[in-house]
Amino acid sequence: MLTGTQVAFIGGDARTLEVIQRLTELDATVSLIGFDNLKQSFVGATHAELTEDLFTALDALLLPPVGTDDEGYVEGVFTSKELRLLPEYIARLPKHAKIYTGMAKPYLKKLCAAHSITLVELFQRDDVAIYNSIPTAEGALLLAIQNTDITIHGSVSVVLGFGRTGATMARTLQGLGAKVLVGVRRNENFARAYEMGFQPFYTSELTKHVGNADLLFNTIPSLIVTGEVIAAMPPRTVIIDLASKPGGTDFRFAERRGVKAILAPGLPGIVAPKTAGRIIASVVSQLIMEDTQKRRNEA
Ligand code: NAP
Question: Are 167 and 186 in contact (CB under 8 A)?
Answer without folding.
Answer: no
